[in-house]
Amino acid sequence: MAVRPPAVICQDCGRSWNSASLAEGLRLLGSCPRCGGTLEFRVDDGAAPGPVTPPQGRPGVAPHLVLGIPRR
Q1: Rg for the chain (alpha carbons), in Å?
Q2: Tens-place pLDDT, residues 8-67
Q3: What residues contact residue 15 under an 8 Å CB cut-off, 6+ apart?
Q4: Which parts of 1-72 fold into alpha helices (H)?
Q5: Stated pTM of the model
Q6: Contacts of 21 (CB under 8 A, 6+ apart)
Q7: Neighbours of 31 (CB within 10 A)
């Protein structure tokens, strides 16, 4: 069985995410929720290529508003 690379990788802390839903939330967030680093998205059918930076002129979105309340 072929192993697929993660959907999103933080270039700074190395954290990776596999879920397409989380990838979309992280795309909206614009940075790593753990360290604030740059995210690199896997290029697939219509996915945004390369690192993504937050939009200019728009306030940052809190991670819990994008990804939901974390499990404890």
Answers
A1: 12
A2: 999 999 999 998 888 888 988 889 999 989 999 987 655 455 555 555 655 667 767 777
A3: 9, 32, 34, 35
A4: 20-29, 63-67
A5: 0.56
A6: none
A7: 20
